[in-house]
Design goal:
The protein is 14% helix and 41% strand. 28% of the residues are buried. The strands form two sheets. It has a six-stranded antiparallel barrel. With 213 residues, it is mainly beta. It has four helices and twelve strands.
Length: 213
């Protein structure tokens, strides 16, 4: 579990092909001096397990569904990656609860400097937009951000200079694809309300009757 507060960015030093996917070697910031093999690290919003430590770098594997559902399938050597260590239970929750389980991939449609801040617009997969609300939380490449507006399948987000300078957003451009994780609580609420009903059965007379209306 993570908070979406990116601690540092690390450089992708090497990509090795393995039978089931990719093995990644990532440079380790100095503050990551407590990492151990089997620790979890959020890499661009994807929860990965450290398999090896080597001086100022660590190795992890990205395989199967991880590559199918995230932008890790397209990363290149020397890319800057957002990094966050797993949350301690005694830590302050400065962002929001982020699992590192990417729900889909969004595309940047606008990136504009507005005074000292930046405005980011992302087009989301249609299946995810129902979990997003104005002033709600969303993780973009592992960054905990607040949604400023929702219009169709597009969301707008204001980025403060600190977040801009400390994450790989500063390297992004229009058309880039980003990992999206929606707020976990929205999905739990949906599951509770729907139960075992099919999605097409929502909002029928029987659906409302079961809810006590």
């Amino acid at each position: 579990m993570f908070t979406g507060l990116i601690e540092e960015t690390g450089k992708l030093l090497l990509i090795e092909k393995i039978a089931s996917g990719k093995r990644l070697k990532i440079s380790t910031p100095k503050i990551f001096d407590d990492l151990k093999v089997d620790d979890s690290v959020s890499v661009n919003g994807v929860c990965l397990t450290i398999t090896r430590l080597n001086g100022n770098s660590f190795w992890c594997d990205a395989v199967g569904e991880t590559l199918n559902k995230t932008t890790l399938s397209n990363i290149l050597q020397n890319d800057e990656l957002n990094l966050e260590r797993a949350l301690h239970l005694a830590d302050r929750l400065g962002g929001h609860l982020v699992q590192g389980h990417v729900n889909g991939i969004g595309s940047i449609t606008q990136l504009t400097k507005l005074g000292e801040n930046f405005f980011l617009e992302i087009n989301l997969p249609e299946k995810l937009i129902k979990y997003v609300i104005n002033e709600g939380s969303i993780a973009v490449d592992g960054i905990s951000l607040t949604v400023a507006k929702v219009a169709g399948t597009k969301i707008g987000i204001s980025i403060i200079p600190h977040t801009w300078s400390k994450t790989n957003l500063r390297f992004r451009k229009i058309g880039d694809r980003v990992n999206i994780e929606t707020d976990i609580f929205a999905k739990y609420v949906e599951k509770i309300l729907l139960g075992t009903q099919k999605q097409d059965d929502r909002f029928t007379d029987g659906w409302f009757k079961n809810l006590g209306y």
